[in-house]
Predict the 3D structure of the following.
Amino acid sequence: MSKVPASKLRSKTVILVGMTYNILNILNILNILNILNIISNVITPYMLNPGAWA
């Protein structure tokens, strides 16, 4: 396994963070994040109580 210089790793990390930020902004504009949040809030109690699935 070769070592990666910190400057190269930093630039790749900055690009990855920027791309993730842009994707999350697009999803937020489309209200997809709100829909996923609602689904998550409905499913979470079932995940915490395995007997509720049956």
Observations:
- The mean pLDDT is 86.
- The helical segments are 6-29, 32-48.
- The chain has one domain: 7-53.
- The chain is about 75% helix and 0% strand.
